[in-house]
Amino acid sequence: MEKLTNTSLEKRLRDKNLRPTKARIRILELFETPGINHLTCEDVVKTLLKKDSSIGQATLYQNVNLLADAGVLTRYTGPEGMLLHNAKSVHHHHIVCRQCGDIMDILIEGHCENLKPYALDEQDDISGWQVNNVVLEFYGTCPVCA
Prior knowledge:
By secondary structure, the chain is α+β, with helices and mostly antiparallel strands. The protein has two domains: 7-86, Orthogonal Bundle (Arc Repressor Mutant, subunit A), CATH 1.10.10; 90-146, Dna Ligase, domain 1. Helix content is 30%, strand content 16%. It has helices at residues 7-15, 22-32, 41-51, 57-69; strands spanning 39-40, 74-77, 83-86, 93-97, 103-106, 137-140. The strands form two sheets. A three-stranded antiparallel beta sheet has the order 1-3-2. It is globular.
């Protein structure tokens, strides 16, 4: 069995009570690659199978979903409804180019927890809701497309 040497990724997995298997380490290494931001499950599988065919396709799909369920990867529904993943551990938001579809991670100046939602229709009562996550998306045109 191949000895895994990426201790920071192993620790991240152990902190979530997950064993640091070869497939999980390879998935996280992919997300650590500079320039890799948001990938579909299919993107992860295709990329990793090109690099290492010793990990099965089903194993990769299962582990991407397991890592997302455990909070190691973050799920994000992209602008065209595609389920994307990224490994940023800090709460963040996105800015999306409407022309090329490029997505960048951004932080918001101020505090999202200070936002107060209210119902669009006056007859709807949202006073009993407990908000546990806020997602903001910004759309525009990136400098390359402008």
